[in-house]
Amino acid sequence: MSMETKDNSLRKNRLGVLGIVFFVVAASAPLVGMTGAVPVAILAGNGAAAPGAYLLVGLVLILFSVGFTAMTSKVTNAGAFFAYVGRGLGRNAGTGSAFVSIVAYTTIQLAIYGFFGAIMAGQGAALLGIDMPWYVWAAIAWVIVTALSLLSVDVGAKVLGALMGLEVLSLLIAGVAILANHAGEMNFAASFSPENIFVGGFAGGAGIAIAFALASYIGFEATAIYGEESVDPKRTVPKATYWAIGIITAVFALVSFAMVTGLGSATVIDRVAEISEGGANPAAVLFYLVGENVGPWLVTIMEWLVVSSLFAGLLAFQNANARYVFALGRAGVLPASFGRTNASGAPVGGVIVTSVIAILVIILFVVQNLDPVLNLFFWMSAITAIAVMLVEILVSVAVIRYFMMNPGTHWFKAMVAPALSALALGVGLYLLMSRFNLLSGLAPSPEESGNAWSMTTLGWTLVLLPFAALVIGFIWGMINKKDGSKMSADILS
Which terminus, N or C, of the chain has the lesser number of Cβ atoms within 10 Å? Predict the structure, then answer.
């Protein structure tokens, strides 16, 4: 039996498949990934085969989604992974996974605030004549994001829909134009053959490229978070999940392949190094190609769409994290005040706690005079990548155990797909952790940045943070007995 009441349940029937897809694709920020991660994956990873790494990761996540979406017919809950892991592995494990998820969505939002502030500080001064420090721009975004989140989720979906549509359209125009101008130079084997994708092995180039590709897909798993607010969640969430992964994979694979083709598969590493100044300015690679094959007008548009992409990501992760906090408050894991909604049906407690944490961390980084990109963005986004992968592995294992105890679902959905995804995601987690120095910039020295597992003390602290959150959450679930019935009811709702 569900324990929902009017003020502790999210408003239903507000989102369809497209609305959820808007949130999820916006969270993955494909334009930011194309300008930031893909050039580095080419330069430090497997070169011309970077598009194949993105395609491979997309296929693995589709495999994960087979078991993931099978659970949506059993559980519809704003806590999503929290409820799924709780169903399969028990309430204590569910609580631990929820703590990890909160770490993931909090850190990625913080990362985006840093990047957004830095981009706006540069473009505001150069293009608008408004010279303000990064943290002022971040604070302005914080106010708008908080206000939109408190209004209602469907308002946010409309905003994200417009921004995401323009972002994806610009990338498709760029990708098609580059390929059309270099049609005779396309080399599918160089980018998509297994021997090239895995060149250098997991400990070398292939591992680096796959690690960056995995980090670029962060956010797709948020589809189930909006189940309570969707129309017919048992149909809507699975459709939205597959559509979201399909769109993200197609955009990354197509545009990255166009970038490799435009620069020449045989010379792409040298060209990326030259254009990006050794990787210091990775965004210059895509903008160079767009300027050469489409025109400066699209470069200008895309420069601003990077800003809108970052803003869309802020709004998407604000909503996702707020709903996790809401689910934990409603279940009795966190104070009950966090599990309340306002007149608009928004999880007001979750929105407020998420916003307060964000502004406090921003203030801390400002006081410590830390860089918004080199520190705030790279450190926080690297933590997110580890945390999301850890929870996805827990979900895969939970799906297997749940359907072992509750037979009746097709064997491929219940056992084979989640087992294979857990194995593949385990390899992915190893790659992310071993290459954390590249993702976070916390290698002991520049010479050691390419060495697996070579990190500073701060690097080790950050890489282990999601695991610490898992342990703390598990222990909290064990000692938080007074509200155990509420948690059980929420997980079973």
Answer: N
